[in-house]
Design goal:
By secondary structure, the chain is α/β, with parallel strands linked by helices. It has 13 helices and 15 strands. Bound molecules: pyridoxal-5'-phosphate.
Length: 361
């Protein structure tokens, strides 16, 4: 039996408000109707306004990982290579996905907890040609963010190389402006900073990336980025049947996000991050992420007191909360608090008070 609801302080899926959930119960219409065109384009227009972008935008019925496959099948020409910055589990998933798509990919390993920086790839870019560089803007496994603009600026010197960015757990939370930062494909899932249920993925695509797709054969069908935008150009709809119910919720949620404003959302989440960090240090824990590169949406706390994270979560569950243990090899060495979406400082104080009580801090 599914247990009592626990407020989600995990780094996705995050807590979804009742009014947003309720939007999914709107009566359906056909995805080839004018009503659908209006709904879908309202979502895209709001995304364009939120991210202040002139680039192409699509919303696909899938989770964010689909965009890793899309990257592998659309952006790397035959005989060309990808360069993947890997500093955690999700950036590694991107590398592996490209390899699974049959792409030749070179991996630059960076210690978990540290941030990828332009200096990690500059020499490689000078020595060899790469069709794409991949980077994870917000490594959810470690709580490390990257300075995207620094990568965008670097790649201005390599016009054949596209910047492909996994921002699954930060887009819509951290302040990310694709045009200013110079990204060519940046993608996210709805269950993170958009505070919606899982099931939709957002991709923001430069003209350069879209042009590149024409030079890449075997793009598949669901993963054919060129076909997605060609269909949109003609019909202003999606090539296959989308999750209309979630799009109702997305349209509604974006109105709330625009009202709060991208800068204010990012400032609110930064305050939660800073409060969480201070709390952790004041109680004798450590911070896992390299200084200056801490994620705005997920705090990874070094478990210096060697507390039992599994037992904590069990006890927290009885109080109606859940946090995340460390990811993979970081289990028990770290624990993570996801503070994305609609969470507020008052909510966070409630959670931290519950942890203090359970661990007798
Ligand atoms: C940084 C990052 N990339 C990719 C993914 C995978 O996203 P999805 O589960 O929506 O496919 C996640 C999920 O947690 C993530 O945090």
């Amino acid at each position: 039996m599914i247990s009592l609801h626990k407020k989600l302080w995990i780094p996705g899926p995050t807590e979804v408000k009742d009014d947003v959930l309720e939007q999914q119960s709107n009566k359906l219409f056909g995805h080839r109707s004018n009503d659908f065109t209006l709904l879908y384009n309202s979502v895209l227009d709001q995304l364009r306004e939120f991210f202040k972008t002139e680039q192409h935008i699509t919303v696909i019925t899938a989770s964010g990982t689909l965009f890793m496959d899309i990257s592998g099948r659309n952006l790397i020409r035959p005989g060309k290579k990808a360069l993947c910055l890997v500093n955690g589990s999700f950036s590694d998933r991107m590398y592996k996905t490209l390899v699974n798509c049959g792409v030749e990919a070179e991996k630059v390993d960076i210690e978990w907890g540290k941030a990828p920086k332009p200096e990690h790839i500059k020499e490689k870019l000078d020595q060899s040609e790469f069709d794409v560089v991949t980077v994870c803007q917000n490594e959810t496994s470690t709580g490390v963010k990257v300075d995207l603009k620094a990568f965008g600026d670097l790649l201005k010197n390599y016009p054949e190389t596209l910047l492909v960015v996994d921002a699954v757990s930060s887009l819509g939370g951290d302040l990310i402006l694709p045009d200013e930062m110079g990204t060519d494909l940046i993608f996210a899932s709805t269950q993170k900073c958009f505070a919606l249920p899982p099931g939709l993925a957002v991709g923001i695509v430069s003209q350069k990336a879209l042009d590149r797709t024409k030079e890449v054969p075997n793009r598949g069908s669901y993963t054919d980025l060129n076909a997605i935008f060609a269909y949109f150009e003609k019909k202003r709809q999606t090539p296959s049947t989308p999750n209309i119910s979630l799009l109702f919720a997305f349209d509604y949620k974006l109105k709330q996000m625009l009202k709060e404003g991208a800068k204010n959302i990012s400032a609110r989440l930064t305050e939660l991050r800073d409060y969480t960090h201070k709390w952790a240090l004041d109680h004798g824990f450590g911070l896992f992420a390299e200084e200056g590169y801490s994620s705005v949406t997920v705090s990874t706390i070094a478990n210096k007191l060697e507390k039992d994270v599994g037992a904590l979560n069990k006890a927290l569950g009885e109080k109606g909360f859940v946090i995340a243990n460390g990811y993979g090899k970081l289990k028990n060495q770290t624990f993570r608090i996801g503070h994305m979406g609609d969470h507020t400082l008052d909510d966070l104080k409630e959670l931290l008070a519950a942890i203090e009580e359970i661990w007798e801090l």
